[in-house]
Amino acid sequence: MGRRMPGRNFLFVPGPTNVPDRVQRAMMVAMEDHRSSRFPELSSSVLNDLKKVFKTATGQVFIFPSSGTGAWEAALSNTLSPGDKILAARFGQFSHLWVDMAQRLGYDVEVLDVEWGEGVPLGRYEEILRADKRHQIKGVLACHNETATGVTSDIAGVRRALDDAKHPALLFVDAVSSLACIDFRMDEWRVDLAVSGSQKGLMLPAGLGILGVSPKALSAMGGAKSRRCYFDLADMIKANATGYFPYTPALPMLYGLREALNILFEETLEVVFFRHRYLAEGVRAAVTEGWRLKLCAREPKWYSDTVSAILVPEGINGAHVIDVAFRRYNLALGAGLAKVAGKVFRIGHLGDLNELMLMGALAGAEMAMLDVGITVTPGSGVAAASNYWRAHDPIPRRKVSQEEQFYEAHSTGSIQG
């Protein structure tokens, strides 16, 4: 065991994210019978309320004891047959891994390699879909938020490409690091399979794979010949209908999810989305205006509101920044993965967080950069973020009058007089 560091670890990887105290307390429950007559109150409430987060009235949501990767597999194997053709773009580690899974499961994937730092290539998607006159492509994969590069793609645009090509393929979307952080509209965008996980915007530990499924996707299950067992939606549909699961659910996680949903609805989803955009803009100001560095995301239209991947200067290894930040300042930053390994470090800014928590991450990242020889002006990142947040604070500021100051100063001591 290494030495204990005093104070708290500053967790700023793009997942797992900070678990709110309320959610932690909600998960501290005695074990109970998941087949009792009371259990459906909990399961039905979370399954129904997750639909509000996906923004679907017509779809059905499923919860698997797994990571988001399990929900990827459930989405593919329940709706496709071996050898089915899939269209997918690869522009980061997570879009790559979903392609890799589809290939390993026996599907024929047409992969469009895209510059890491860009998102789904809408024009190329539309061209390929228009050319597919016989509708051999059965599924279109799109990663809403590519966590490896800090890039968000236009899912409404993918839907338009399908519609303009009059193509009936199912639309599969990875919303693992976007759900409950960045606006996601399952019904409006007619997303057929929306994949997510518990450890990002839903503010829980890892362990739940969450899948939103449209009526069109549910009807596709009838002809899907891929083998499936643990991830078979038919078993889930049968058990969920009465409020139960086909196998033992992750009970404390469901209690935590109930509380996390309460927190999201108290803040309201629209305010949650605004907060993520506002916090992300402060981080981007720190990176570009303060430190004079570049983001991996090539253009503002790709910028992610949940994670920023920051390019380190030539000759510097991004892994050193991450290592120093962790060992010296107890700050956890995201590593560069695969093609961008050593070229970037990532700051996750999603879930349960505010300006001052991000100030700690920016200050720690800045000190670690200085320690490894990156020439940034000390204090510049924090100053740029501070300027942005103070200028764009959604809460109206007011000056306190002298009378109020006098009253506040004396009201606390008035009983003693």
Helix and strand layout, with pairings?
Blueprint: E1 10-12, H1 21-27, H2 39-54, E2 60-65, H3 68-79, E3 85-90, H4 93-104, E4 108-113, H5 122-131, E5 137-143, E6 145-146, E7 151-152, H6 155-164, E8 170-174, E9 193-197, E10 208-213, H7 215-220, H8 233-240, H9 251-267, H10 269-290, E11 294-295, E12 307-311, H11 318-329, E13 331-335, E14 344-348, H12 355-371, H13 380-391, H14 402-411
Parallel strand pairs: 1-13, 3-4, 3-5, 5-8, 8-9
Antiparallel strand pairs: 2-10, 6-7, 9-10, 11-12, 12-14, 13-14
Structure description:
The chain folds into two domains: 10-15 and 268-391, Aspartate Aminotransferase, domain 1, CATH 3.90.1150.10; 21-266, Type I PLP-dependent aspartate aminotransferase-like (Major domain) (Aspartate Aminotransferase, domain 2), CATH 3.40.640.10. The protein contains 14 helices and 14 strands. The protein has helices at 21-27, 39-54, 68-79, 93-104, 122-131, 155-164, 215-220, 233-240, 251-267, 269-290, 318-329, 355-371, 380-391, 402-411; strands at 10-12, 60-65, 85-90, 108-113, 137-143, 145-146, 151-152, 170-174, 193-197, 208-213, 294-295, 307-311, 331-335, 344-348. The protein has a seven-stranded mixed β-sheet with strand order 2-10-9-8-5-3-4, with helices on both faces. The chain is globular. It starts with 9 loop residues before the first strand and ends in a 6-residue tail after the last helix.
